[in-house]
Structures are given as structure tokens and as C-alpha cells.
Amino acid sequence: MNHSADRSQSTYLTGFVLAVLLTAIPFALVWGGLLVGPAVYAVIAVAAVLQVIVHLVFFLHIDLKSTPVENLFFLVFAAVLIFIMVGGSLWIMMDLHHRMQ
Amino acid sequence: MSAATILEEEQKHALHSREFGFWIYLMTDAVIFALLFASYAVLAKNSAAGPTSKELFDLGRTSVETGLLLVSSLTFGMASIALMHDQKGRVVRWLIVTLLLGLAFLGMELSEFSGMIDKGAGPEVSGFLSAFFTLVGTHGLHVALGSLGIVVMIAQVLTKGLTAPVRSRLTRLGLFWHFLDIVWIGIFSVVYLPGVL
Question: Residue A1 has what pLDDT?
């Protein structure tokens, strides 16, 4: 009992430290103007995706062993829906924007 | 098997279904936010000769808001750990800390909104600002409802104690609170950071 509680507290703290790092990196880059051009956007995007994964694993305790399979199914289903709808909308609108110029 | 154990099994089963149902709700909420993000990404540059994101956003404020939400996620985690240990007092104390952090976040966000509206950058000015207020405002509304949820749960822990239904509700509220922090990662990565570049 005590042991699992220790592990759980360290889980939250690990997640917190990782989240702080993954927040500090993009903020520092943008604030300090350390990078320019598309590289900044790439770093922001990668840090955001990594931080979402950190939150899912360390705060929401999603893993492939203990999380019920139906919960994982809906998580993946939502991710696919989001990918199709957001990706599709952006694709169409960027294309339109390009053609209107 | 006695009637009491059967009832207990039945209750466990019912609470498990609610947790699953809540998870489905969170995923649908994620889809709503994703579409608001897509609208914002499409409209972000359309400031209609009004103020642009570069003139309006203040990264200092955004970083403090980000810190408040992130620390509140950690303190809710501490409340969840106290719940595992059956420490009622600690659950309530960590929930109060989380509530204060959530309210501080809301206060900062509301002062940002009213400051923007005073500067003539309200939601009616341009496509960019309509999308901004819809996306960030929807997140703020969720944080306000989450804070209300924390108040209700503090009251329930104090009056009902750590019974099985109260534990289940606290767990679900925790999922909701951590989920809001995930949405905020999207907001600072899509709205604020690219907005000042």
C-alpha cells in the first residue's frame, strides 16, 4: 500500500517536471527569439504533442496494461476523428486560400 | 452471498459504467475543442484591419496562466493520492488549493478578456477575434464548471465522507480537470505562441 502510494506520488511529480520542461522549451524559444522560420512551429508542435502524451500517461494514468480496452478504443477513435476533421478542414481551407490569391 | 454483498457488487458495477460514460463524454468534448481549434487556425490571420494577435497577446500573462493550470493539475493529483489513503482532511485541503488555483486562472483570463474588449478588440471585431473568444472562452467556461464541481465535491466529502459514490465522482472530476489542462496545452501552442511570432 505504502509502496504503491510512493510510486503514485512520484508518478505525478515526474509528469509535472516533464510538463514544465515541455512548456518552458517552446516559451523560451518564442520569447528569446532563438529560432526563426518554420523550425519554431515544428518545435512548438512536437513539444505540444509530447506534453499531451505526458499528461495522458502521468496524470490520466493511461497505459496499455491497466486501462480498460474500451477506454483506449474511444481514445483512439476520438484521435482518428480529430485527425480527419481538423486535418481535412485545414487542407481544404489552405487550398482555397492558395487558389484565391 | 448476502444481500449486502450483492448490492455492493451492483453499486460497483454501476459506478464503473458511469466512469466509462464519463470517458466517452470527455472524448466527445475533445472533438468539440478540436473543431474550435480548426476554426481558429483558419481564421487566425483574418483580423479585418482590426488589432492583430501580435498587438494583443501578452506571453507573460499566458505563461502565468499556464503555470497556474499545470500546478492545479498536480494538486488535484495530490488530492487523488490522499483519496487512495482515505485521508479525508488532506483530500479537502488539496481540493481547496486546486480550487484557488483554478479561480486565479479564471480571474486572469477574465481580466485579459475585459482588457481586450476595452481596447476595442471584442469578439465582434474580426474573424480572428470571434474564433479566439469562442475557443478560449469555451475552455474558460469548462474551468468555471470544473471549479463549481470542486466546490460541490468538497461539500460532499465533508458531509457524506469518502463513500464509494463520492470516490467515483472525485475520480471523474479529476479526469475532467486533467483533461482541461490538456486542452490548455493546445491553446498556448496554437493560439498564444504562434500569435506573437
Answer: 37
The identity of residue B109, as a single letter, is E
Could you report the predicted ipTM of this complex, rounded to two decimals? 0.91
Using an 8 Å CB-CB cutoff, list chain A residues near B195: none
Q: Do B189 and A26 count as a contact with CB atoms less than 8 A apart? A: yes
Contacts for B62 with CB less than 8 Å, ≥ 6 apart = B188, B192
Domains of chain B plus CATH, in order, are 62-197 (1.20.120.80)
Q: What is the pTM (predicted TM-score) of this model?
A: 0.93
CB contact (8 A) between residue A16 and residue B73: yes
| Domain boundaries along the sequence of chain A | 1-64, 68-101
Is B54's Cβ below 8 Å from some Cβ in A? no
Do the Cβ atoms of A26 and B193 come within 8 Å?
Answer: yes
